[in-house]
Amino acid sequence: MLKKLWNYFSGTEKLLWSGSVLLIVLSFIWFGSSDYMTLTASLVGVTSLIFCAKGNPVGQVLMILFSMLYGVISYQCAYYGEMITYLGMTGPMAGLALIAWLRNPFGKGHSQVAISSVSKKELLWMILLSIPVTVGFYFLLDHFHTAHLLLSTLSVFTSFVAVYLTFRRSPLFALAYAANDVVLIALWVLAAREEQEYLAVVVCFAAFLVNDIYGYLSWRRMYAHQRELLRNKAP
What we know:
Largest sheet: none
Helix content: over 70%
């Protein structure tokens, strides 16, 4: 079974996943981190991304698990914005995305989701919807004295856009997550100024950034392939 799973991924995906795992483990050791929950969350997260890059619903299952672990880690660092975002929004939305992906498979089985496109009108509606959500979170996070309030609020915005696009099965979700990765890298760099072991988290999200960029490119290829197959089947 493990051999079949390994052969499921392309050479590039194997290299990307293996390199990400190696980088995360080495950074964990190098920066003297003793938080094995952070290590576990990082490995679950990067594995989730490689499945998501294939359009496989397993990626959403792993994203739910990552959200739970990351929420606890964020609480320990007083990043209440991250905690609330991942436990209250990203995790539940990953659950909804899982249902949407399972209900909209491409071809036989459920190993690849049918990719959809989002109109400019819907993108505008999404941005308008994200404004009250982000503003509401700003005051909520301010109430809880969240560290680095503006960056934490920006993370809420990028996360909301990402989970919305994931639910809508749009390739743009990966770009939104890449933007969120950049924000999170900045947040954890600030945290690492006080605790060096958090540099391992910075490395983790740097690996996530590379994986999300690859995920976007992979979804664009899959989208083109799916459209070609559908055209060939048309009478």
